[in-house]
Amino acid sequence: MADPRFFAVAGPFTAEEISRRTGATLAGAGKEKLVLRDVAPLETAEPDQLSFLDNRKYAEVFRQTRAGACFVHPDLAREAPKGVALLLTPEPYRAYALAAQAFYPEPPPVPGVAPSAVVDATVDLGEGCRIEANAVIGDHAKLGRRCLVCANAVIGSGVVLGDDVRVGASASISHSLIGNRVRIYPGVRLGQDGFGFAPDPKGFVKVPQLGRVVVHDDVEIGANSTVDRGAGPDTVIGAGTMIDNLVQIGHNVQIGRQCVLVSQTGISGSTKLGDFVMIGGQGGLIGHLNIGTGAKIGAQAGVMRDVPAGETVLGSPAFPVREFHRQVAALRRLAKQSND
Amino acid sequence: MADPRFFAVAGPFTAEEISRRTGATLAGAGKEKLVLRDVAPLETAEPDQLSFLDNRKYAEVFRQTRAGACFVHPDLAREAPKGVALLLTPEPYRAYALAAQAFYPEPPPVPGVAPSAVVDATVDLGEGCRIEANAVIGDHAKLGRRCLVCANAVIGSGVVLGDDVRVGASASISHSLIGNRVRIYPGVRLGQDGFGFAPDPKGFVKVPQLGRVVVHDDVEIGANSTVDRGAGPDTVIGAGTMIDNLVQIGHNVQIGRQCVLVSQTGISGSTKLGDFVMIGGQGGLIGHLNIGTGAKIGAQAGVMRDVPAGETVLGSPAFPVREFHRQVAALRRLAKQSND
Amino acid sequence: MADPRFFAVAGPFTAEEISRRTGATLAGAGKEKLVLRDVAPLETAEPDQLSFLDNRKYAEVFRQTRAGACFVHPDLAREAPKGVALLLTPEPYRAYALAAQAFYPEPPPVPGVAPSAVVDATVDLGEGCRIEANAVIGDHAKLGRRCLVCANAVIGSGVVLGDDVRVGASASISHSLIGNRVRIYPGVRLGQDGFGFAPDPKGFVKVPQLGRVVVHDDVEIGANSTVDRGAGPDTVIGAGTMIDNLVQIGHNVQIGRQCVLVSQTGISGSTKLGDFVMIGGQGGLIGHLNIGTGAKIGAQAGVMRDVPAGETVLGSPAFPVREFHRQVAALRRLAKQSND
User: Chain B: residue nearest A142 by CA?
Assistant: First the structure.
């Protein structure tokens, strides 16, 4: 089970209850009343625990699991060891996520303002907010209900947070309007000046950065990521978008809904992403591009041109996936010939 | 206009006054007394607002702007819609920067030390400094005049800041000497140990890092960037250099004047950059290199060798720009042939 | 000598004493009593100072050094200028490290808890700990002896630190068990949620992250690096591993002993590294890989497949080193031919 120093387990739940909560179909009969006390990885799960198989790579581990119940795709059900209760679903990972949320519900913040927190008298704090030790909130900021501002975080003047926003330890936010249920992880930097200056023989001339960062509902921004505010227009992150750690978002960037940006991705100024765009780790996009809805950009890709909706690009410079694979294959053959 | 929760607008200014302040030439007659109340992007600018066209890509937007006045290169002036007052200049972005500074002058810090700040009794604070809530300044640090140390920032023992330095929220500085008008953005880490250790069968042996970070005047260091102090020599950043977010500067690196390092660039230990070097986003340089004055290193380039002054290199491993483009083109042709 | 504002020098030591402490052989006679007062780089070392030559690239500087004594590999000893006392060793950098530690011993933390630190009443603080200004330590955390928690750092509920751990300014740690003599640099983020969510037409479903970060003895984690806790299993960093700045370690990653991860490296979830693995700057590994003991992964390499023990891979996508070099050479020839 999860380390009780850090996590409190709820439940138990019957297999039937788990089926009901997740939409997975309980296979075979007689398992409805099976009592499940926890979730666990396949390798370590016990007979009163619930696990999942989501990656064919782990089928061998699945065959030997001692888990009492397991979410699995119907196509892989035949690999199951005897006795395990199968919870069939086309989306085992999603079902596991919902079950794990049932076993480990996130506790709401315990309301209160730590004595060492510095909250300006003009701040509008919604009910149920928790402001931890040494956090600082500037004048005229406005927080919705049940916000959690962790230790040593800094919320600047005039910043607006919606309801149920969580701001991690030592994060800082300025010049930003944040929606509901947004999670800002520790060390995130939101709303500072973009990288804007004009060349001049006597030294660069700083361009005032007069926009904001606008973050829509249900966004997550990973640890130590940086999002600069707009130079004139705003920098915008669409609802439900997931941003990993150490990601850089330049000024005026517009990101659509439910995009996924894996860690260490960088997006240069004024580039626009449609909805459902995915960018692999360390992907890089130059500025002023348009990336269409549902486009996929590979890890370490270097995108220098617009990408049409639905297209997958790889490589640096990035090419459409088929062309990239042809290039890699052609070069391998060429290198082999040269060596023969 | 810029969100008044975050920005206060100055002015208004006449077109003539803007011409005088920026050096741009007001075209045509009768526009001298035009009253301008704000700057704005071309798309949203109103008849009493000032905009600029700097990128040919936005010429179509320019043709339809309702802006009262606009900075534009003489070559693009004929694209202007009727009625807009043209401010002609070979450097419209620079002129816009100066105008925007006039409309949105940066307010000087309001002097004072927050009650929750922890400033050692031996600190030498120049007049006009502002030390915000929960900032910490160690013994014998020395700050020039009008420095701004934002909330939760940490300035270590003995650190020296010049005049008009701004240290962002939650940044930390140790073992460093900082010039005048330097901007350290939120979350920057300046002066920690470099990555120095010697191999040993029993575990790595740590090499004491005995140098400093020396930052010259007018440098900017972007959010969450890291600059390690020297191992023996200093790590040095030359005057006027602009460093974006999430950039890594290793120990003993020497950077010249007015260089530009775009976000997520990494420079390994002991590499030296001349003046006016530009590095695109996610560029990487191994250690102990010499990069000549005015060299340009492309985004995601991987530089393994010295780069002569004025040369442009691209790719990983990096090659001179022409050779890189020939390689990309040759590989595309080869892949196409293989496929035919 | 090192700037006395930041460093206090110990000593002096005789050449004989240095030889004894480092295992280097003092060449020639009559130098045993030579008094050495400091370490210094070759370029600036004075006759009472000790230096080292570790990189053939600096042989010319060595020939002109005024250093009183110098660690050098026997093969390069003949390049020495007259009069310098040679300390011969196959590992000059390691010997220099030990000597520099003698001249600049790291002072133990001065015990005490700053009045502005917020340490929960249930925290178990070992003897000799130093908790600096505005640091925050949550309930039931447990710190070993002589730990140093720098200004504005945050240690979360239940976190365990071993003896002699140093946590840098503004770092944050949650859900983690940390061994002895571990150094967490400023701005590190340890133990936050991994990047885990399941797709769903109505928005991503968050997967509770129920594991921990386990850091073994003698590990260093560089400034602003991020290590996510496990999703179910733990994220594990083996003893003696050195992690540079701005490195990303995903959930469930397991890293062996004495690995070296250069700055801006990213390792995706569930990938496993054996012992003594080295990854160059900006290297990237996708998830669920196995990297064998002693494997070397080049700077900017993009690793998409398992790497056998002892193999070196380069490029993106990564290939074994010989194949990579053949590819680079073949492409150069092809581009040259196309141009002729």
Answer: B5
Residues of C in contact with B157 (CB under 8 A): 5-6
Q: Looking at chain C, which residue has its C-alpha nearest residue A2?
A: C210
The answer to whether A334 contacts C334, with C-beta atoms less than 8 Å apart, is yes
Are the folds of A13-103 and A171-340 the same? no
Amino acid making up residue B165: V
Structure tokens at A264: 């260490």
Which token pair is B112? 């004072």
- Per-residue model confidence as pLDDT tens digits over B66-100: 999 999 999 999 999 999 999 999 999 999 999 99
> Which chain A residues touch B55 with a CB distance below 8 Å?
288
- On chain B, the residues whose CB falls within 8 A of the CB of A207 are 93, 96-97, 100
Q: Is the pLDDT of residue B339 over 70?
A: no
For residue A31, name the pLDDT band (cuts at 50, 70, 90): very high
Q: Measured between beta carbons, which residues in chain B are less than 8 angstroms from residue C7?
A: 210
| Class at the top of the CATH hierarchy for domain B171-340 | mainly beta
Quote the minimal CA–CA distance from C207 to chain B in Å. 27
B13-103: CATH, from 1.20.1250.20, 3.40.1390.10, 3.40.50.10780, 3.40.50.1820: 3.40.1390.10
Closest Cα of chain A to C339: distance in Å? Answer: 17
Smallest CA–CA distance, residue A258 to chain B, in Å, is 24
CA A45-A51-A56 angle, to 5 degrees, is: 110
Q: Give me the residue from A7, A100, A339 closest to C326, CB to CB.
A: A339
For residue B296, the cross-strand partners are: B278, B312
Chain B to chain C, count of Cβ pairs less than 8 Å apart?
188
- Cross-chain residue pair A210–B7, CB shorter than 8 Å: yes
Query: Looking at residues B128-149, what average pLDDT do you find?
Result: 98
- Write down the domain spans for chain B: 13-103, 171-340
Given an 8 Å threshold on Cβ–Cβ distance, is A195 in contact with B263? Answer: yes
Tell me if residue B251 is catalytic. yes
Instruction: Give per-residue pLDDT as tens, A136-189.
Output: 999 999 999 999 999 999 999 999 999 999 999 999 999 999 999 999 999 999
SS3 assignment, position C244: coil
